[in-house]
Amino acid sequence: MTGPSTEFHKIWIEQCAATEGIRERFGMKNVLDYLIGEKLFTFVTASEQDSDFVAELPAFVTAIRRLFAPGEIREYLDHLQQTKFLAPPEPEIDDADEEEEEPWPANPVRAAEELLRFSRIRQLIQS
What is the pTM of this model? Predict the structure, then answer.
């Protein structure tokens, strides 16, 4: 893991280094979930508040492009778009005793922020 001298905004270097072992042990989908679906999303979120992360973001994206083929990245982002960001909400089981309510996301502002973040990541990683 990170040593005491490691700066948090440079954690992406270790995360990228871990991908080969994850890919070998758990497969392509899991390594993409780890590096793009988890670590890159977290990094982009941090970059919205911290200029150190902003400065490191291009290098992180470049490293991801070196680790994965463009088709692998595109397919993964298409999968995320369809299953997470544009997927219809899960139907809730209606109880006969409850009033029927209009479906509404629990936090529409957060959902919109996540969708915008996804769009930004897609643009960064595929441009």
Answer: 0.80
